[in-house]
Amino acid sequence: MKFLPIFLDLQAGPILLIGSGELVRAKLRLLLAADARVRWHATDGDYAIAGLDAAAASRIARVEGDPREADLRGVIAVLAAGAGEIGVDVAARARAAGLPVNVMDDLQHSSFIFPAIVDRGDVVVAIGTGGASPVVARRVRERIEALLPARIGDLASFIGRWRRSIHARIPEFPLRRRFWERVVDGPIGASVLAGRVDDAEASLKAISNPSAYAGAQTQGQVEGRVTLVGAGPGDPDLLTVKALRALQDADIVFYDELVSLEILDRARRDAARVPVGRRVGKPGIGQDAVNRLLIDAAKSGQRAVRLKGGDPFIFGRGGEEVEALRDAGVAYSVIPGITAALGAAAESEVPLTFRHEALRVTFLTAHRARDAETVDWSALTDTKMTVVVYMGITAASAIREGLLAAGRSPETPVGVFARATRPDAKSVVGTLDHLPTLVRQIDGGPAILVIGDVVSHSAPWRNSTLNQWISELQVAAE
Ligand code: SAH
């Protein structure tokens, strides 16, 4: 560590800022946003700065004269543009006066540097690379921005408001720390992060015996919870920010077979991982057993994530799990995911709806030929309706027959999209009449079928027609 991150109290005195130009103005804005008072020596005499409110502008004091002789009395830090000699001389004077100094873009003459900052009110994260690479620092900042709940600062202020009163009521430090851990990790913290500060205030007020509340953890009475998380179709970058946060927060992850290893890798390193999925042909542990596992995990105080492919509420039995959790009195929440149809559609450029051409979309499932027999195909003959079939690979022939018998044209474009958004994705397009043949070309699932005119807009369709023309032209040329 070349530099120790510390946080400077800007109320203690003014900062001396020397220089002009955009970089200097950016620093000035940063300082003013942190409530600093700034003595500014604009070396080119231009003190104009846009977009400041009157209160901020009033905290700027102009300094004129030779910047090398600027008055350092009362100043708490010095910041100078890295414009050659002046910066170097100012730095030397500041150091001699025992003041921290930063010369912009000049590590050698700086005694402190500015970190990249994630600012969430009372919660501030500083990221440094020892001055080596601001670009790397910014990338790290983006990741932290994505991971930190938007209202984490509210949570810190909320605790700040209650600090004294709880301190008085729980004098013992370890117990007090447990109390706050329980507040932060439990339903009160969740309320603040969801923007319901009033609820959180009420719940905290309702705790009549804070010491007992803090002690509950040791007696195994903490509230666990279950979060149903949609993992998306496969590409880990298609996880939502919320899903990622839930994974990073989990004590245990119950995952489906469809969830890729790359996604599982995004879970907290020491979270337990339990596969509970069924695979075509192989039975899983059964829905009742899954429900039991979720309930038991939550009741033993764990933060459980139930990780499902795509979206939990699209053919994912999320509804049943939520009902079981509700019946068992377990706290739960649901985080949506990108369902396979949307992942495949985006990847292969199939607009599921299209002005004038496709006004409706239906998602249905036809697991086995037997399921296909129970589908009311006559409701799916509207040529302006796009039909998406999940788990439709084995029933492809029955689906074709059902739609044709109901009157949908054999020329209707269809696409079979396998392993969508994964590195080994494969798509095949053709017409409804050839659906069973198309399905045989994808080398295994998971795959969805998209049936409707919109498939003719897709990238694979455009490529295949192009290829067809080329081969026809070649035949004609011969
Ligand atoms: N809840 C999931 C669907 C679960 S049912 C979701 O919202 O996507 C399982 C079916 O989803 C598979 O049989 C297949 O039809 C489809 N599926 C899941 N992932 C897929 C992928 N990456 N590409 C294509 N189809 C997929």
Give an overview in words:
By secondary structure, the protein is of the alpha/beta class. The protein folds into four domains: 15-114, 3-Layer(aba) Sandwich (Rossmann fold), CATH 3.40.50; 152-213; 225-338, Cobalt-precorrin-4 Transmethylase, domain 1 (3-Layer(aba) Sandwich); 341-464, Methyltransferase, Cobalt-precorrin-4 Transmethylase, Domain 2, CATH 3.30.950.10. It is built from 18 helices and 17 strands. It has helices at residues 22-33, 54-57, 84-96, 134-147, 152-169, 173-185, 187-193, 197-205, 210-215, 241-249, 261-264, 287-299, 318-328, 340-348, 369-374, 396-406, 435-439, 459-477; strands at residues 15-18, 38-41, 60-62, 77-80, 101-103, 116-120, 123-127, 225-230, 252-255, 272-275, 303-308, 331-335, 360-365, 385-390, 413-418, 426-431, 447-451. The chain has a five-stranded parallel beta sheet with strand order 3-2-1-4-5, with helices on both faces. A five-stranded parallel beta sheet has the order 10-9-11-8-12, with helices on both faces. Strand 13, helix 15 and strand 14 (385-390) form a beta-alpha-beta unit. The longest helix is centred in the last third of the chain and has 19 residues, at 459-477. The chain starts with 14 loop residues before the first strand and ends with a helix. S-adenosyl-L-homocysteine is lined by residues 233-234, 258, 308-311, 314-316, 339-340, 344, 390-391, 417-422, 445-448.
